[in-house]
Amino acid sequence: MVKTEGSFAVEDMKNVQINIGAVIKEEDEWDQEMGPYPKPHVATLRDWDFKIVNRYRIFYAPADDTCTLCTFGPCDLTGNKRGACGIDQAGACGKIVLIAVLMGTCAHTAHGRHLYHWCLDKFGDMPFDMGSDILVKAPLTESIIGIRPKTLKDFGQVLSYCEEEITQLLASCHSGQEGHYIDFESKALHSGMIDSLGKEICDMLQTVAYDMPRGDPEAPLVEIGMGTMDQSKACLVAYGHNLAAGAEAMFYTENNDLWEKVEIGGVCCTAIDLTRIAEGLGNTDIPKMIGTKVKVVGAVGWWRKMVRAGIMDAVMVDEQCVWCDVVRDCQPRKIPVIATNDKIMYGLVDRTNDPVDEIVSDLVEFRVAGVVVLDPVKAGEVAVKTALQVKPKRADIKSKIVLTEEEFKTWVETCTRCRQCTYVCPPHIRISNIIEEASKGNLEPFSSTYEICVGCGRCEQACPQEIPILKLYEYANREYIANQKFKMRAGRGPVRDTEIRAVGMPIVMGTIPGVIALVGCSNYPNGTKECYDIAKEFVDRGYIVVATGCMAMDMSLYTDEDGKTIWEQYPGGFDGRNICNIGSCVSNAHIHGAAIKVATIFARRNHRANYDDIADYILSKVGACGVAWGAYSQKAASIATGFNRIGCPVVVQPSSVIYRRAFLGRTDVPEDWMVIDARDGSLVQIEPAPEHMLYVAETKEEAMLMMAKLCFRPSDNSIGRMIKLTHYCDISKKYFGKLPDDWPIFVRHASELPIADKEPMMKELEEKHGWKIDWKAKKIVEGPIRPVDVSFDPTNLPRKIRAKKKK
Amino acid sequence: MIEMAVDTTKNPIPFEMAQIPGPEMAKAYATKVIGSIIKKSKRPLLVVGAELFDDPVMFDKVIEMGKTGIPIAATAHSVKGFVDRDYLENVYQIGLHPLTNYLRFEDWKGLDGQGHYDTVIFLGIHYKFANGMFSALKNFNRNVRRVSIDRYFHVNANMTFGNLAFSPDDYHEAVDEVIAVLKK
């Protein structure tokens, strides 16, 4: 669509003005007709949502039994009772789920709105150029809105759409509005989709404006780790998710030739995005490869550890996953804080309109703990100048940040073993036992649990002796911190169309066993190492492994026996036995985008305003599984729900039960597994593939087995099914010591059995499961749920039926 | 007569202190009472998780319980512990999440196809996950009795031990006492 807007007065007609809101004419260069659902509203895709939740039953684990949202409350909903307003426990859970998903959706969309204004202000409107290898440039925008943006300004109408939907969805949470859990979940799925769109807007805007890589499998390796910050320089950390102010600090440093004096590092997704700047097409004025000068200090889970390790002189915070007590943590350590985004202002004074040097002086002289500066350019200059000037003044305090040996010993001896710390520790570290060991001189438990500690500090609040437990950790791990220096591939951005052409068929046929997407935050049940273990397991097995955000950062902290990180061990393409760092949280949109591209580029499905058709294709044919092993914030809820709506299952860590809801299949109900054969409209019972849509795993071993299983799709051909089944069985044997109990339900033909175990498995099918085997021909004669049919075209949408079945 | 040495009614506070769900909260019971309730159950199911690997002797205790005829649902990758001990007689491998999902439906026929369960007994499971699954049953299928013989006070169970997380010897003894009742 091309849209013209404006207003004009009509000559000789007094007081008459004609406003033209939108004159729309069809583009001629897009060969796809407008699909059925451009800009779908809250109820438009409800039928699709119901198909999901009818197969994948909505499961709630209430985090509390009461509702306190209105003045009738608290209402006791225990046992699915109803509150005064009439809502039952399931409905109340659905409402909270929707609110959580909306929080995440708002965070990403508001990030997009901020970037939209900022990028247009700073750079002006720019052509939406994704390079010659990417023609399906904004897959979610195209699938949901039905437009192809030509310039950055075109994303304005996409943002407006998102904001309208968010408003409608949030309105439905008001008491007396939506009351049924199924519709809350349909709305949550809608919000999840909007979340994915909001993320796409963010990453497309910054990719073009800041010239980030356009799907470059050889994006540069950048430095990651607390030890990468050169302490001989003034160390400035940019913390959060929005690159605007951090980038300005980089530009100020570059323009004033200060890199010899200033070290800039990032924490959380701001880090990833800063290290992507100017590594793309080279078509902007930004100094080429400036992103590689910035260090990724670490993911959000390391923040409080960084502060206590004394590795920064000043910090600028922007938005999203930023701890609420940054000022409280930084003030006693004399680390000035510059808040750069109106979403986080910490009660600090807004100094946006004050002269730079006055602000810097107040910070450097410690007259204020922090300031708000909402102009990114000014914030960047303030931050760099502050870091430079405060560094010498901090020399004294810096030397005192990490405990001395004597202080450490004194504190560990103060512990009375009351264990209040353990009762509040999210990963349940037996902290008092560790302190007891330290009092005997054994610091190993402090080291081995360092990566498991999420750095929340609840233990310190609970301790009656006021022991600074996180400081004890820093002391015990000071050498590790200094040497935490690794390499991470910079976020490469979208998957290229050319890559999809190469892997589309192997993914749909199953010969590439699956796409594993490792996304999300840093609240791992058993430490950051699990990120590396999970990624390595699947990339070694030939899956396509993609990563974003905290998981991409945290898996970088480990090496193989040759000292290589996972990014140095494997290539960075979207292909089997490759691993891609797609980018920050908002780059998750490109994982949706890759799945959409399989449907539209490989399978030639029209994706324009055709979201449910594409999601149906992905659910039936694209063997992909998301994993948020450190799921923490509400954005994790919206990200997972968005994946679910587009047909991708997600596995999450055990503490994710706090988000209450899952989508789980019942393999004992055959009617749940009926799909339409699009060739003739006949109904076919399929194996449960994928079996679940949102699944909580207790351990990484269970997660890995489930991930392999959730990559099965009804469209797998026999070779593909054999490969997938081989990995499923092999992971089970490796970590469970036996074959999984349910392997027979995925077998349709003898050729699908793992080659190494074919004969004993056929024997088991015959003896244990009563299947009929023709041993002479080595064929299965009777037993499978359905036979292999290479032309089978599974769908859940009646409108995809090509010809009615003959009666 | 079985002598009860361990007081499992002590420390009845949620293992995660802020885990206060609402007006209906668990009570901590003596081992004899819990053992008797399990023994009287018509269709009990022992549900165990991967924390058994942290305290491997617990596998042997679970197997002892299994040998009294109680079927075992081995969640996460805990089935490996049973494979290693060559005991798979009445052990079913299933994730805790799908298991709880099945448990909330009255029409489910059980892991052995012989019918639903009237009592589930949790142990060796990640605390927060187990708490959530107890909550699901508490709110959506109250026909299943929720019993914990884990080392944590489980606020969403019907019956639980008090916190024994820091007293491994007492905990082992408490489980032994339950086993003794089952064998009686």
Core attributes:
heterodimer, A: 807 residues, alpha/beta, Substrate Binding Domain Of Dnak, Chain:A, Domain 2, Rossmann fold, six-stranded parallel beta sheet, 29 helices, 40% helix, globular, B: 184 residues, five-stranded parallel beta sheet, two-stranded parallel sheet, 7 strands, 35% helix, 13% strand
Explained architecture:
The complex is a heterodimer of chains A (807) and B (184). Chain A is of the alpha/beta class. Chain A folds into 4 domains: 30-55 and 63-209, Up-down Bundle (Substrate Binding Domain Of Dnak, Chain:A, Domain 2); 221-393, Rossmann fold (3-Layer(aba) Sandwich), CATH 3.40.50.2030; 405-482, no CATH class; 488-782, Rossmann fold (3-Layer(aba) Sandwich). Helices cover 40% and strands 13% of the residues of chain A. A 6-stranded parallel β-sheet of chain A has the order 9-8-7-10-11-12. A 6-stranded parallel β-sheet of chain A has the order 16-15-14-17-18-22, with helices on both faces. Chain A has a 3-stranded antiparallel β-sheet with strand order 21-20-25. In chain A, α2 (89-123) packs antiparallel against α4 (155-171) and α10 runs parallel beside α11. The two termini of chain A are 44 Å apart. With 184 residues, chain B is an alpha/beta fold. Chain B contains 6 helices and 7 strands, in the order βαβαβαβαβαββα. Chain B has helices at residues 31-40, 57-67, 79-84, 96-103, 127-140, 168-183; strands at residues 27-28, 44-48, 72-74, 91-93, 119-123, 145-148, 159-160. A 5-stranded parallel β-sheet of chain B has the order 4-3-2-5-6, with helices on both faces. In chain B, strands 1-7 form a two-stranded parallel ribbon. In chain B, α1 (31-40) runs parallel beside α6 (168-183), α2 packs parallel to α6 and α4 (96-103) packs parallel to α5. The mean pLDDT of chain B is 96. At the A-B interface, β3, α14, β19 and α27 of A face α3, α4 and α5 of B.
